[in-house]
Amino acid sequence: MIKNVFFLPNRVAMNVITGITRKHVANAETVPNQAGQLPLYYNCLNTGRPGPKDQVVWAHYSDVENSPLYPFGHGLSYSEFLYSNLNVEVRVKHVEVTVRVENTSSIDGEEVVQLYIRDRVASISRPVRELKAFRKLNIPAGEGADLRFELSAKDLGFYDAQGQFRIEPGQFEIHVGGSSQTQLSALIELPAAEIKNLVS
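-> structure tokens emitted (200 positions)
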């Protein structure tokens, strides 16, 4: 938060406010708009709420949005970044994710690129998003970078009620962006045969 810079030495605070120091720090928690939204966290279980607004009954607050003030992973910057060319390929031993990140501003800047997944259907409820990888990089103004991530079997599985680790076939959503509310995503299907290759 901007108020926290006043606890810093004057020169340090001035460099942060004016953009001389361009350190990117991402939120390690979800910041709500109002205390009435609590508990609020990015990796909640899927409840089906809130649903589309055209439904007769839809869960919402009457005086505030459902969305947080600052989502998990959110960070402020003097630069602007564009994510594109998200590609997901299922390899023999891993799932390969590549993405293009461009600094579209006139200011050099740092960005924390975050990768989330969602197991759409499983034998137990799974979070709507789970952070699986991230990378911090400095991108000069007007330039871009191509990033590559690998998702292994341990990234795609979970522990069941008996404490046994398992990976189940089905659809997985892959999300990449600058916070947990990123909209750039891809959908992959992992059949049983490919699951067997991942864990062997």
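The CA atoms of residues 119 and 172 lie 5 Å apart.
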